[in-house]
Amino acid sequence: MPTNLETVQFTFSDVTGHEYTDSESLGASGQVIAAETAIKSFEIGFEGNDRELMSEKIQTDADVHGDTISVNLEALFRDASGHIDDPYGGNVEVLVITENE
User: In this structure, are residues 11 and 94 in contact, taking their beta carbons and an 8 Å threshold?
Assistant: First the structure.
């Protein structure tokens, strides 16, 4: 069974007040048996002034729908105030590993 590697790029900016979520679809040649994701690279930061960082979250996963893979991303960048009120943005590159029939 062939294994395929692809990358998906997520770019976002001016996110404030909530966690960033997005999904990208990939087409595959043939039926996909399984798909996994890994973070290949990322750069996330506050837009504007520097702030003391409290927490950062980056999470990826994949859902298989026949010959299509939905690559999902959740990202959060929060300062020391504990609120998600400061604009943030960045780039996350996700590696998608699939096993096809």
Answer: no
